[in-house]
Every structure is written in structure tokens, then in C-alpha cells.
Design goal:
There is one protein chain. By secondary structure, the protein is an alpha/beta fold. It is elongated and about 75 Å long. It folds into two domains: about 240 residues, Zn peptidases (Aminopeptidase), CATH 3.40.630; about 110 residues, 2-Layer Sandwich (Alpha-Beta Plaits), CATH 3.30.70. The strands form two sheets. The protein has an eight-stranded mixed beta sheet, with helices on both faces. It is built from nine helices and 14 strands.
Length: about 375
């Protein structure tokens, strides 16, 4: 007997897997869907899957959920907490359980619209959406629209938040390594302090003029330097992300960072190496779909026009191809932790709300 959406969420939450390593997660979903009548399962890459529901000769709607987790140690104390050192701290277990429940609804009700349900790997930095698109499997289907949701405790339970046009920023992962020369701390003039070069870089970035109307930023989440306490660090590294309203502005900012690094190299003698990681396009919500579904969803949800966010999301690769509608679904009840926090744990009740939202959307698309 197949698991319920809540049971699937609990099991998925216990076995979180990092990007492109979601083998057990993929098998869990397949094992609970493969006996459903009227569907076909596709495996375009090693992890993740596409569930095809074809009922007529018309076009297809694409609904997407992400399945990967983060390298975060869970601190929720939940009875179904992670059994390893990773965590679904971005709510992908909830997204997947919503999509899973929605598939069961569409099959049981014989919804008269062709649908592709995508359980996508590697949203957290791997660009899984791009990988799926590059397989060209989606070209086999006439996809007319794409939909996705994302949980957040920024908004109360019962709230759906989105905006016409730009919803999420473009993002680019950046890794920078500084190379100096080691020396004893008693004789610092004999070395080149790579950590000082890193510190000068961060100070310089903070002084870049900020445009409130066209915000661009770099966030640094990880720094490492040195080997022992009494040796001048010969190496230092940082991992960060650039965010801007368009991909072009992100790349312009990246070029500015290189100029700053060249200046620091001249002044300190510390060499540098900079590399790009995953680069996500901005997420664009189709204004027509926004108006249509905001009105439609308002019958059951409190609708908020949230404006754009500096969040990065690889659903932008789909919004580049198809008219799309993505939205936040609120999870806040009493305590806020925020996404990617070791205590972030949406209540199970959000799953039914997400399924209801997707029901309203697909039934509206039938009209």
C-alpha cells in the first residue's frame, strides 16, 4: 500500500540527500507511484523523475517540486528528524509531498488535462532544472505553462505570496581563493598574509555603491584560512553568492569583483583564483497567470503581492521557456526560523494546503 503524503514527507525527511545524490529519495517516490494507473515514469538523469499523465491530445502543464537537501545538521527534535548529517532545511520534503498528493488527486479524479509532474534534483546549487532541460526530454511534450511553489515562514499559514514579473533574483555561486606565503607570526614581513587579502576584499566589497532600486549584493557564507595559530596564513578561501535582478547584472558584478581582486593583488602580493559555480536565471511570473490564479486562489487563501525577493531559485530556467506561475506558501504559526535554518520545520498541515492550491490551479486551467 502506498504512503500518504504526510507519511512520504516523514520518510523523505529522514533520508535527506545532497544534490545529484538523491538515489534513495528517487526510489522512495517511484516505489509509491509506480502502481498508479494512467501514468508513465521517466528517468532523464540518474536522480529525480518525471511523471507523465496523458489523457488527451492537448498540451501539457508542468508542475515541479525539488527533492535535494542541504549539508546542515538538524536541530528540530522532530520524531521524524534526519537520520544523517543532512537536512531538508529548505522544505523540499514538503514540496515533494505536495506534488505526490497532487498526482494522486489528478489520477483519482481523472483530471482532463495532460500534466507533467517533475521531481527535480539539485536545486540547491546544482542547477538540476538546467540539467533536466538539457536532456531535451521536455521537448517531447507541448508544454504550455509551468507551476511551482515554495514554503516559507515569512508568511502565516493560509497565505500565498507572489508578484507579477520578477519574483526571485538571478544568482551566481562564487568561490575565491587567496594564495600568499607562510611565515612565523613573529616575522610577518617574511610572508604574505592571505587572510589579510581576504579581509581587504570584504572591506572593498562593502564600499561598492549600493543602488536601492536595482540592488546587487554578494553574500559570503563560508570562510577558511590558515593551518596553525602561529603561522601567517598562506591560503584563505571564501564561498559566496552574487544576487542581482538580472543575469546580466550578476555577471557585471562578477567582473567588478575581479577588478577588486587585481587591486588587492597589487597592494598585498597575494595572488587569487576565482571561479563560478551554479548560475541561476531570475524567476519571472507571467502577469496574466498571476492575475488569473491570484483571483482563483483567493477563494481559499490570503493573497499577498510580495514584490521581488533576492532569493535564488533554478525554476528560473523554466520561466525562461514557458509562461509560469510560482508562489510562496506560508508556514508561519508561532515561531520563525527562516529557510536553511537547522530548526526550520513546516507543519504537516501545509501539505494539504499545497495540494489544495494545486487543485485550484489545475481546475482553473480546465476552464
Amino acid at each position: 500500500m502506498s504512503l500518504s503524503p504526510i507519511e512520504l514527507r516523514h520518510r523523505m525527511h529522514q533520508i535527506p540527500e545532497l544534490m545529484f545524490q538523491e538515489y534513495e529519495t528517487t526510489n522512495l517516490i517511484i516505489n509509491n507511484l509506480e502502481n498508479l494507473p494512467g501514468i508513465k515514469i521517466h528517468r532523464p538523469i540518474e536522480t529525480g523523475l518525471i511523471v507523465e499523465y496523458s489523457i488527451n491530445s492537448g498540451n501539457y502543464l508542468l508542475f515541479r517540486a525539488d527533492i535535494d537537501a542541504l549539508p546542515i545538521k538538524e536541530e528540530t527534535g522532530a520524531s521524524f528528524a534526519s537520520q544523517n548529517n543532512y537536512m531538508h532545511a529548505c522544505g523540499h520534503d514538503v514540496h515533494s509531498s505536495i506534488l505526490y498528493g497532487f498526482i494522486n488527486y489528478c489520477v483519482s479524479k481523472k483530471v482532463n488535462h495532460n500534466i507533467l509532474f517533475l521531481f527535480q534534483p539539485a536545486e540547491e546549487g546544482g542547477g538540476g532544472a538546467k540539467r533536466i532541460i538539457e536532456t531535451r526530454i521536455l521537448n517531447k511534450f507541448n508544454i504550455s505553462k509551468a507551476f511551482a511553489l515554495h514554503v516559507t515562514d515569512e508568511y502565516p499559514v493560509g497565505t500565498i505570496a507572489s508578484t507579477p514579473g520578477l519574483l526571485f533574483a538571478s544568482s551566481l555561486e562564487v568561490n575565491i581563493k587567496f594564495k600568499g606565503k607562510s611565515a612565523h607570526v613573529a616575522f610577518p614581513y617574511e610572508g604574505i598574509n592571505a587572510f589579510n587579502a581576504l579581509r581587504l576584499f570584504l572591506d572593498a566589497v562593502d564600499k561598492i555603491p549600493r543602488n536601492i532600486e536595482e540592488p546587487t549584493l554578494i553574500g559570503v557564507g563560508k570562510i577558511s584560512a590558515g593551518t596553525v595559530r602561529n603561522i601567517v596564513p598562506s591560503s584563505a578561501e571564501l564561498e559566496g553568492t552574487i544576487r542581482a535582478l538580472t543575469s546580466g547584472k550578476v555577471l557585471n558584478y562578477y567582473d567588478n569583483l575581479i577588478q577588486i581582486l587585481e587591486g588587492i593583488k597589487k597592494s598585498t602580493g597575494a595572488d587569487f583564483y576565482i571561479e563560478k559555480g551554479a548560475h541561476y536565471n531570475q524567476v519571472h511570473v507571467d502577469p496574466v497567470l498571476y492575475e488569473k490564479h491570484s483571483k482563483n486562489l483567493s477563494s481559499k487563501f490570503n493573497i499577498v503581492d510580495c514584490g521581488y525577493k533576492m532569493t535564488g531559485e533554478d525554476f528560473g530556467f523554466f520561466t525562461d521557456l514557458y509562461p509560469s506561475y510560482m508562489f510562496w506558501i506560508g508556514t508561519y504559526k508561532s515561531v520563525k526560523h527562516g529557510l536553511h535554518h537547522p530548526k526550520f520545520l513546516p507543519d504537516d498541515s501545509v501539505i494539504a494546503l499545497g495540494i489544495e492550491a494545486y487543485k485550484l490551479i489545475v481546475n482553473s486551467e480546465l476552464n
